[in-house]
Design brief:
By secondary structure, the protein is mainly beta. About 5% of the residues lie in helices and about 45% in strands. The radius of gyration is 29 Å and the shape is globular. The termini are far apart.
């Protein structure tokens, strides 16, 4: 071979094995759209005075080194909301430089890279439904990028020139090895800092977020079924069970009676029934009625409503009180008096007041003069004293007990005297023993403990598990309560407990549910509760308020046998429960 050709061939071989990787070039959204099968381009307004940004985000899949895969998901991979980055970090400045997808043995990954970082990346991450996307955002994307989301809430991201160069005015589409993701940003132009980054998903997935230098790595668990399949509160178990006494509930503005497995309307009227209570002997109902044209969003306190009584079959209906409002009716243990809540204000904000009225008729009277406290959630003790929640204009919440002589006394003074709690949430009462189970709202972090009080305010016990302890009611002196392990907008990891009158605690069942738990009614025999499935925003744990069109169902749990069954299914929200 000619020596000249020999050297040419050698040079070509060497060049073919040593081709240098191309320098990354900024990719505009137009290029991204050309590279991906399902582009989305929805313009949104940009901030006045800020330069029109040009995204420089890629659409390539790049592997990121991760720990070796295990046969089980790590404990920090879940549906729970959680912070990421330094806990005490302050404002930071950065430019969003790239978003890309990758994959490991256990996870799909979305990597968000920042450039020119000044400060420490930090924020909060959550798995949410699309309805939680900020509705008042005027920078970035006004609509959520998917039915479900992993959100990165960067509350301390400064709105400076680097932020302006980061704005995504379109939904970015990136391709992973097995998944296409849509990524969007949302912020408010009037704020000096803060933004949401949302990763759109077809359904919620367990996740975790970690900070690596100037990158956020979102890891999404693969091949897990949604909703979770370990949900005993939504799965029948044991022999067929049903309540042995009638139960009543509100659906689509009417009172229904559930008995022998059948639900029938008690009375169908043009008005909207909004709440119901049953007398101790089961012979009388107390019902709140509002006009048919009442706005659903204003219920229960913001509409004019009246208090009625009737027999359980709907007969002998009688107007009992018309003081401008009606909510939360409650019979005294004697059955001779009804307490209820009404709004005393003629214009917003509401000023709630508790009233009492004799069952046989007569003038309704408020428990106290209108002052700086809004009073609600009335519940009776067996001796005729009345407990209710009070909230001040400044947001402070306490429990007040009206004594037999008409005076008021705060029950929660000792509980709230320290730094542990900032107020009270929902309350249930054991009338005969004078026990009060309180959602004690934590002062230093989100969530609620369960505090058991005597009527004189003496604390008896405190339960401090997980995120939220919700008291459901008493069964023969035993407290039934639900613990939610962590805050989540899509799945509740729960445990149902029974605390006996002697103080021992037993677990009834535990699981994870994508359904929300609404109203609950505890009787001596069991627990009736409402489950509803919707994608409305809200953290699972506290009492959930359904949207009117939410599909819902009634379930019965036998507290002795542990058997449970769905006893009624509705095509709309079930909003109240009453029984004895």
């Amino acid at each position: 071979m000619n020596h000249r050709w020999f050297w040419i061939v050698c040079l070509l071989v060497l060049m073919s094995g040593c081709v240098e990787a191309p320098v990354p070039v900024p990719i505009t959204q137009a290029t991204v759209s050309a590279l991906t099968p399902t582009p989305t381009a929805v313009p949104s307004p940009t901030a006045p005075g800020l330069p029109t940004p040009t995204p420089t985000l890629g659409a390539r899949a790049t592997p990121v080194p991760t720990p070796a895969a295990t046969t089980q998901l790590p404990d920090d991979v879940s549906y729970c909301a959680r912070p990421f980055g330094a806990a005490a970090a302050a404002r930071f400045s950065a430019r969003l430089a790239d978003v890309r997808a990758a994959q490991t043995d256990l996870f799909d990954q979305v990597i968000v890279e920042f450039a020119d970082l000044d400060g420490v990346l930090h924020g909060n991450a959550a798995c949410l439904w699309a309805a939680a996307w900020p509705p008042d955002a005027d920078l970035g994307r006004a609509e959520a990028p998917g039915r479900a989301l992993i959100t990165l809430q960067l509350d301390d991201w400064a709105h400076d020139d680097l932020f302006a160069a980061s704005l995504l005015t379109e939904t970015l589409t990136i391709s992973g090895p097995q998944q296409i993701y849509h990524v969007a940003l949302a912020a408010r132009s009037l704020d000096s800092r803060g933004a949401w980054l949302g990763i759109g998903l077809p359904e919620p997935r367990p996740f975790r977020v970690r900070v690596q230098a100037s990158s956020l790595i979102v890891e999404l668990a693969r091949d897990l079924a949604f909703p979770p399949d370990n949900d005993p509160l939504g799965q029948p178990g044991g022999p067929r069970v049903a309540p042995d006494t009638p139960l009543f509930f509100i659906q689509r503005g009417d009172v229904y009676r559930l008995e022998d497995g059948r639900a029938t309307p008690v009375a169908e009227t043009p008005e909207l029934e909004t709440d119901v209570a049953v007398s101790p002997d089961g012979t009388l109902l107390a019902v709140c009625r509002a006009p048919a044209d009442a706005e659903p969003f204003a219920l229960p306190y913001g509409v004019r409503a009246t208090l009625w009584t009737m027999r359980p079959d709907g007969t002998q209906a009688q107007l009992l009180a018309d003081v401008g409002g009606c909510a939360e009716p409650a019979f005294a243990a004697s059955g001779r008096t009804i307490a209820f809540t009404a709004n005393a204000a003629v214009a917003p904000p509401a000023v709630l007041q508790v009233w009492t009225v004799p069952v046989i008729g007569g003038e309704a009277t408020p428990v106290a003069e209108v002052d700086e406290w809004s009073r609600s959630q009335p519940q009776w003790l067996a001796d005729g004293r009345l407990l209710y929640r009070a909230e001040s204009d400044a947001g402070q919440s306490i429990l007040l007990l009206r004594e037999s002589d008409g005076s008021e006394r705060e029950v929660t003074a000792r509980m709230l005297s320290g730094s542990a709690y900032r107020g009270v949430g929902r309350v249930v009462v054991e009338p005969r023993a004078g026990l009060i189970a309180v959602e004690a709202l934590r002062a230093e972090q989100d969530g609620a403990d369960l505090v058991l009080l005597r009527a004189d305010g003496t604390p008896l016990a405190t339960e401090q598990r997980g995120y939220w302890q919700r008291p459901l009611g008493f069964a023969d002196g035993d407290l039934i309560y639900l613990m939610t392990d962590c805050p989540s907008g899509v799945v509740a990891h729960y445990t149902l407990y029974r605390r006996t009158a002697r103080g021992s605690i037993a677990q009834i069942l535990s699981g994870a549910s994508a359904a929300s738990l609404g109203a609950a009614q505890v009787t001596a025999a069991g627990l009736m509760y409402v489950r509803f499935a919707d994608e409305a925003p809200g953290v699972r744990g506290p009492l959930a308020t359904p949207v009117p069109e939410a599909m819902s169902s009634l379930w019965w749990l036998d507290l002795e046998q542990g058997a449970r069954a769905e006893v009624y299914r509705a095509d709309g929200a079930i909003e109240a429960l009453a029984g004895r």
